[in-house]
Design a protein that fits this description.
Elements lengths: L1 E5 L3 H12 L3 E5 L3 H20 L5 H9 L1 E4 L10 E4 L5 H12 L7 E4 L6 H5 L8 E6 L8 E6 L5 H13 L3 E4 L8 H4 L1 H12 L5 H11 L6 H8 L1 H14 L10 H9 L26 H24 L5 H11 L6 H8 L1 H15 L8 H9 L5
Parallel strand pairs: 1-2, 1-4, 2-3, 4-5, 5-6, 7-8
Antiparallel strand pairs: 6-7
Helix pairs in contact: 8-13, 9-13, 13-15, 13-16, 15-16, 16-17
Bound molecules: nicotinamide-adenine-dinucleotide.
Length: 384
């Protein structure tokens, strides 16, 4: 199989590595020679590390690198069975590339985009044959993260969706199918993990170290919300929240926070700039968590109930199946449990009660309980 990758920044380079490791012949195209050279040398370094760790042999490492051709000419995509685009997040620029690409590849070549925030349908619209277009959303770093969200556009033919899914499954990834809606599954369902944590910080319920401690030690999450936001970068994380908020027609459930916006404005972007909520410079002192068990349990119950509510509502409006929603959160952001399975475990009525208590207290849209949870509680049903 010949796979084309357009754009070899962070994501394109990772996707090329994944496809080549799965024995595909890969052609990588980028308009920057510098990016092409960097991508090639970065892969050589990754392979050297994998040899050291005993994950690949010298021979496999050479084969993986040899199967990738780097080119600054788009017509090298000729003969590709599938092309995945991972260039700058801009609709007009992506349209230009797809229009040029369609005149090079064959009729039955699948054209896919790795976009995080643009509508797949709007991207497909520029093509002569939009039925061949599909979204394939990898997570960073693509070689390590198991999840790929597969998003059919309104125009996508069922056979194209099936073929894209089967191909990426054969690369050893876990795929989930998602309706073309803002944030897909992961970037939508995860919003309360950050926003509810920031809300509690702003209101003085607890400091950020205590909230992180509670989510890790009591909630079982790998990283606390503030650690994770510092890791992702406040510029990136804030933009995702704002994009989802706008795309859902300003639904109060996704309202961004000034606290995070100010951090981004100050250049306190997190780990990458040496300071976010925490300080990362050598010898810097950070606050210690309170480790108050009752407070910790309150924090976890509030954030987890909000996450469950968002996951349930994602099912309620048929964005994905219950199984795929749970798979996505476990494999895309490493949640300790699937949120809907967690709801079953906690009890659906309990989740409704937590949401209703928050709604009564705040009278804010963000705390409205999903109708599906209310209905399930009434009928004593479960997700699985
Ligand atoms: N970074 C992430 O965590 C992440 C995760 C999932 C999806 N995405 C999506 O993947 C895409 C790429 O993101 P990234 O972080 O890898 O970006 P990046 O900035 O690291 O790389 C983009 C690459 O595209 C090249 N490029 C720009 N315009 C081009 C053009 N017209 N033709 C050919 N090459 C061009 C640039 O030279 C650069 O090498 C975006 O759509 C983004 O939304 C990013």
């Amino acid at each position: 199989m010949k796979v084309g990758v357009i754009g070899c920044g962070t994501m394109g380079s990772g996707i090329a590595q994944v496809a080549s490791t799965a024995n595909c012949e890969v052609v990588v195209y980028d308009l920057s020679d510098d990016a092409l050279a960097k991508s090639k040398s970065a892969l050589a370094k990754v392979m050297a590390r994998l040899i050291e760790k005993g994950r690949v042999t010298e021979q496999q490492s050479h084969a993986i690198q040899d199967r990738i051709t780097y080119s600054s000419e788009l017509n090298q995509m000729q003969g590709a069975d599938c092309v995945i685009e991972a260039i700058v997040e801009n609709l007009e620029i992506k349209h230009k590339v797809f229009t040029a690409l369609e005149s090079i590849v064959s009729e039955d070549c699948i054209i896919a985009s790795n976009t995080s925030s643009l509508s797949i349908t709007s991207l497909a619209a520029c093509l002569q044959k939009p039925e061949r277009f599909v979204g394939v959303h990898f997570f960073n770093p693509a070689p390590l993260m198991k999840l790929v969200e597969i998003i059919p556009a309104v125009q996508t033919e069922a056979t194209v969706l099936d073929k894209a899914k089967a191909t990426i499954d054969s690369w050893g990834k876990t795929t989930v199918t998602v309706k073309d809606t803002p944030g897909f599954i992961v970037n939508k369902v995860a919003r309360p993990f950050y926003s509810e944590a920031i809300k509690m910080l702003e209101e003085g319920t607890a400091d950020f170290a205590t909230i992180d401690w509670a989510m890790k030690e009591i909630g079982g999450f790998r990283m606390g919300p503030f650690q994770l936001m510092d890791f992702i970068g406040h510029d990136v994380n804030y933009v995702v929240t704002e994009t989802v908020f706008k795309a859902f027609y300003y639904d109060g459930r996704y309202k961004p926070s000034f606290t995070q916006k100010r951090l981004a404005e100050a250049g306190y972007l997190g780990r990458k700039s040496g300071r976010g909520f925490y300080k990362y410079t050598e010898g810097a002192e950070n606050i210690e968590p309170t480790k108050d068990l009752l407070l910790g349990e309150y924090i976890v119950s509030r954030i987890v109930a909000m996450l469950i509510n968002e996951a349930a509502d994602t099912l309620h409006v048929n964005i994905a199946t219950a199984k795929d929603i749970d798979l996505a959160m476990q494999n895309g952001v490493n949640y300790p449990k699937g949120l809907l399975a967690w709801a079953d475990e906690k009890g659906i009525q309990y989740c409704v009660t937590v949401m209703d208590e928050l709604f009564d207290e705040y009278r804010e849209e963000r705390y409205r309980c999903s109708p599906i949870l209310r209905k399930m509680a009434k009928n004593s049903t479960t997700f699985f």
